[in-house]
Amino acid sequence: MSKFFKYFEYAYLIFAVVFVITGFYELGINPNQAYLLFGMAVVAVFMFFFKRRFRRRFEERNK
Question: Where are the transmembrane segments (predicted)?
Answer without folding.
Answer: 7-27, 33-50
